[in-house]
Amino acid sequence: MLLVIMHKNENYLQSIMPLIQKEKIPDVTIIRRNGIGSLLEGDSAGTLGFRKGGLSKEYDKALIALVDDEKKIERIMNHLEDDTSSSRWRNFNEKAFVCTLPYVKVKHLEKGSFYTQKREENVKMKLCEYLKEENILLDLKGRTKEDVIKELAEILKKEKDIVDFEGFVSAVFTREKMVSTGIGYEVAVPHARTDTVEDVVIAFGRSKEGFDFDAIDKRPVKLVFLIGTPAKKKLSAYLKLLAHLSRLLQKEDFRKRLLAASNPKEILDEFRKVES
Questions:
Q1: Which ranges of the chain have pLDDT less than 50?
Q2: What is the pLDDT of residue 124?
Q3: Do 106 and 37 share a structural domain?
Q4: How far is CA 162 from CA 14, 199, 202, in A?
Q5: Looking at the structure, do residues 98 and 133 belong to the same domain, yes or no?
Q6: Which of 77, 114, 219, 247 has its C-alpha lying 20 to 30 A from 22's C-alpha?
Q7: pLDDT tens-digit readout, 90-108
Q8: What is the rounded distance in angstroms from the CA atom of residue 175 to the CA atom of residue 163?
Q9: How many folded domains does the chain comprise?
Q10: Is there a single domain that holds both residue 140 and residue 270?
Q11: CB of 96 within 8 A of CB of 59?
Q12: pLDDT attached to residue 58
């Protein structure tokens, strides 16, 4: 889950950094860009407090933290709420906008600039560079979320970039418990950012009948992408990969082509076409 804190004053966001570090959250960045609020899809954002309504276009700075524990978010929120009556708030003139949202709902952030202690490079990742024909299943046997994840994980077991297979599978299920990765449009993207993989690994599975994945739109899932990315890879690259895949799969004609493909090569060719 992403914790997003927007404020006009960057000094305020910087002042929150010690709180984030205290919770041992390593993946945190401050993004500076005009209209940053409009770059986050707000239809699935859960507003936690302070400012009501949609994500405001007036913000130009946001602290984004990748948080794997709801209790950490709760502690951070309690601290921020305690600060609302302090002189520190008055020094910053206005309250922050705070919300949470799934990773895959980050939109167009690759056009902005990511910062931690220094500027990170602008990395463009292509799915076709990591998806292999032998890691594509066109007739999933599983009929539950758990069975399908295990089925796709099994075909990745041979990948040398997975250094701890059981740990990888456990990380995916731990991530899935936080919030469903059924992103709608009959698509699910179970994933984990973990030390158990050395490089990006991807498996794709298709179920023509569909099955329940607890998706946000409640529709049966037919297209499933299982993704593992190394924890050492920069947060911005991880988010871009998930956001890039999410945007591709929102295109109805692309999803139809994936459903109509007759073999793994055709699936891979479709990705090469849209990513060329």
A1: 41-55, 85-93, 104-123
A2: 58
A3: yes
A4: 36, 8, 11
A5: no
A6: 114
A7: 444 456 667 666 554 444 4
A8: 19
A9: 2
A10: yes
A11: no
A12: 67
- pLDDT above 70: percentage of residues in the chain: 72
Quick one: how many helices (H) and strands (E) in the chain? 8, 12
Q: Domain for residue 120, yes or no?
A: no
Task: For residue 23, give its domain range.
Answer: 2-115
Q: Are residues 97 and 229 in the same domain?
A: no
**Which tokens is 104 given?**
């895959």
175-185 pLDDT, tens per residue?
888 778 888 89
Backbone torsions φ then ψ of 45, nearest 5 degrees: -75, 140
Query: What's the CATH number where 227 sits?
Result: 3.40.930.10
Contact (Cβ atoms closer than 8 angstroms) between residue 125 and residue 201: no
Nearest alpha-carbon partner for 48 in 9, 106, 86, 2: 2
Query: Which of 83, 115, 147 is the last residue before a domain boundary?
Result: 115
Summarised one tens digit per residue, pLDDT across range 185-218 is 999 999 998 999 999 999 999 998 999 999 888 9
CA 265 from chain center: how many Å?
A: 27
| DSSP bridge pairs for 225 | 204
CA distance linking residue 147 with residue 237, whole number of Å: 29
191 belongs to the catalytic site: yes
7, 79, 108, 191: the catalytic one is 191
pTM: 0.63
- Residue at a domain's end among 115, 135, 152: 115
Which stretches within the chain are classed as H helix?
10-22, 70-83, 87-91, 145-156, 165-178, 235-249, 252-260, 264-275
149 assigned to some structural domain = yes
